[in-house]
Structure formats: C-alpha cells, structure tokens
Amino acid sequence: MKLTFIGAAHEVTGSCHCLSACGKTILVDCGMEQGVDVFENQELPVPASEVDYVLLTHAHIDHSGLLPLLYARGFRGEVYTTAATTDLCGIMLRDSAHIQMFEAEWRNRKAKRSGGEEYVPLYTMEDAEGVLKRFVPCGYETMIDLCEGVKICFSDVGHLLGSACIKVWIEEEDVKRSIVFSGDIGNSDQPLIKDPVLLSEADYVVMESTYGNRSHTDRPDYAADLAKILEETFLRGGNVVIPAFAVGRTQELLYFIRKIKQEKLVKSVPDFEVYVDSPLAIEATGIFNRNMAACFDEEAMELVNQGINPIRFPGLKLSVTSDDSRAINDNQTPKVIISASGMCEAGRVRHHLKHNLWRSESTVVFVGYQAVGTLGRSLLDGAESVRLFGETIEVRAQICKLDGISGHADREGLLAWLAGFEKKPVVFVVHGEDSICEEFTQNLKERGYQAEAPYSGSAYELKAGVCMLAADPVVKKGRKKKQAENTVYARLVAAGKRLMTVISHNEGGTNKDLARFADQINSLCDKWDR
Question: Which one, of 234, 231, 241, 275, lies nearest residue 395 by Cα?
Fold first, then answer.
C-alpha cells in the first residue's frame, strides 16, 4: 500500500495522486496545471499503460484536464466518477482538446512564417474522445468493488455539480486501511448544490487547503451585493462583465440574477439583459438542468417543484456562434455579460474585456479564484494597462471582486469537514499555495492531528504509516518544461511502453498466439529499424 504525491503538492492546480495497492496502480485525479506553478511535478511512477484505474473527484480541468494525455500515452483502464461528472467531462475535455489543437494551429502558422519548429498539441480530440469511452458513471453513497481487495465510495462534497470526496478501503495481506481523498471541499449553503457530506472514519485523509489560511467572513447577501453593482454600473451607462468559470460559477450567477429580477432589486433597468457568451457554459447549464433531482439542494428543488427553473429568467440570452458574440458589443444598451474563462486566460471574455476595460462607466466583476500569473489576477492587483490581441488597453473600468462567492470552503469550513471524523486521521495537506499548505498543516498539528504537507514525489507506506521518500521541492526554472514532453517522439516512446504492458498481459498465452504476436512485432521492427 503505497501513496505517491504527484501534482497539487504545495500548489493549487494539477491535482494527481498515485495509489499502489493489491497489485494495481490507481490514480486519484489527473489534472492540468493552470497559471503560474512554482514547483516541478514528478513523473508518474509507472508508464501510463500500467495505470489500471483513475478515480476522479470532479470535472474541473485542474483535476481532470490531463486524462486525454494519459490516454494518448497508453492508458486503457477505467475512469470511475459520478454520473454528473461524467456528463460534465464530456464537454470540458472536448473543449480542452479543442483549445489545445487551436493553439497548435495558431503557433504553427507563426512558426511557418518565422521558420520555427512545429508545435505539437498536448493532446487531440481523438484522445479526449478515447478517454471519455473509459468513464464508468457511479452514484453517490454506492459501495463499488473496484478490484480484489479495493472498494470505493463517492460522497457529495458540495464543490461542483457531481463533485465528490472518495473513500477507498484496501485489504492487502490481511492488513486493512482506509483513505479519503477530499477533492475540493465546497462551501456550505451554496446556491443550487448540496452541502458537503461529513464522513466518520478513515485512517488517512488527503485534504485540499485552497483557503486554509483565511475566513470568508460573514456570509454576504450575494443577490443584494450583485444588484448594487448592477445598479451603479447601469446608471453610468456601462456594461457589467463577469469572467466566470463555465461550469459551476456561471450557473450560480444565473441563480442570483433570477432572484434579483424576481425581487426587482435593480430599479434603473429592471428588464436588463444577461448574455451568457460561452458555448461550454451553455452546454453545462443543460447538464445542470438534467441533474437537478440528484444534485440540487432543498431550496433549489423547492423552486423546481413549483415549476420554476432556478437558473432561467426573462432577458437571458445565450450566445452560441462567433457572430452572436460579436453582436453583444454592437449593442449599446447596458447589460450583463457572463463569459469564460474565469481567470481571463483564454476564450471570449478577452474580447469583452477589450471592449470594456477602457470604459470608465463599465465594471468587471470577479467572482472566483484568480491564480497568480493570470490576467484576472493582474486586474485584481491593480494593473493600469493590459495587452489583449496585440494591443495595449488602459484599465479605466471599475474592477471589483464579489466576496464570498467561492466554491471552496474557508479555514473554518475545512476544519468543520475534518471534524466529522470520529477518530483523528493522519492528514496529508495538498492543493494550496506553498505558504498556505504549511500554515494549514501547522494549524492541524496544533489541534492534535498528525499532519504533513508533502512535495511532489513524496511516497508513503500506508500499512506501516511511514514515509518511504520525502521528496525535496524542485523549483521550476524559466517557463514550463520544454516541449519535448509533448513531441510526437514522446508519444512513440509511450506507445513502446504500452507494448511492453500488453506483452506482460499475454504471459501464459498459447505458444501459437505468442509466436504470432512476436512475429508481428518483429515485422514492425524490421519496417522501422534504422
């Protein structure tokens, strides 16, 4: 029973942990790094082709975004996750693949003009489609026999539609251990989705710490606070631009705006229009509508039972095509524009920022976490000008953050979730900025927990409860790892590793079949041997 930490160790994104037990290799999450990451992540301890299962906590790209790359490198196991997460990944991983391929096409056009090297996308749409076929949808609170000696169960953790913490029971050589992977722990009393479920027993807990050093303060009146911003902006004749994550945050905003319109909280333009300018957000909203019964909280279901859709209202406009998107900025009427991406790093929101940042009458409202190094963080930190599409844009618009809207629990919420365990488990603190991981770990120690904040590459033997390898942090130098990782040659190497995995799977086959397999491999080698 060995647990190795790979990603989101002393960092917020790129979540990935590797569990080796009962002769199987199990990944928990396989996320993409986003924004600026300080430390290098270690490679998986086995080739992708030798990963048997992935357990996925939720659909956000920093937890799911490298699944297509895992598939491209030879993974052919199964991905276990909730039904709603399966639906959301169906759109999010395809969207991520589209972005990868679009960026490669754009870079290669530039490289062709300058004589630069060809850029290879991290993965393709075929890779995304391939891994999506490996998904196994699961219900909440259902015991699942993953393989001999390993059982799993998903419990709602209140972070996103379909999000879960995952409890894993392992029995190996008559030794039993249980470990809970928290995923991202949600706020209590969020709109639409249920509160996090509390678990009672575990030997080990791998726990996020995104807001482990701060409190969200008293819960604000979201609708009233947002209505005030809308009123002030509309009176100036400006637009309200809200960069929002397409999945989760957009739907929460629609919930609040429906309430604002119902209660007539905006007096100046009571019938204001709201544009959702994100094809991904529109698809995600459809998935929310299809998963109401399983995932919505009591308050939202009360509206549903009255025949009221909690995230639909008069004046809501959905922009699907590029022409629809461009037309929004041709319309001079004050309005709300909700668009992705939430950190302003890509997508249509950048066009809306270009059209509104220079206007002192407009407002840009941030409603979610902004990672260091992103455009969103720069604007929140007071940037006086930004570069968009090759132009320098002066920042004259009002920039504000709607405090309290967070999909992550604060320090008190994290501690309350952990207090649900009747006996204090050993806690591994992950998924937080470097200083926050350390601070939250120290907080737990002062409360009597055995707690550690491992770096990428650290490994623990769970039977004996000892550290096998305490990895030192490796600070990144310059930009991200050289593209050698993404080259077609790297894909070929991964295919070779998968071949070795397939060969091992055929041990014990008939002599006739093994001889034919060997002849096919030798024939292929003869063709390509240089």
Answer: 241
